[in-house]
User: Fold this.
Amino acid sequence: MTLHDHLFYLSMALASLLALAIVASATLRGWRDWLSLKRAELDRFVGGAGDAPARLPSAERIEMADLKERIRKLEAIAAGVDL
Assistant:
């Protein structure tokens, strides 16, 4: 192999690594934006960032708590935290 071959393979490896980093960055941004959208939908449904209002039946409050917990877990996954 010549020096030219080595430079070609090195440049291809670096270009592939850069492409992978760009795709991973775009995917992570999309994931975070999706989580923000789901949080906004949840807040709009509940009526704020606090607990579910007392007027909701207990089954709906339980479902709302479950949805909040699922969002917290998804955010932890996005942040790279092991649960």
Notes: The CA atoms of residues 21 and 59 lie 44 Å apart.
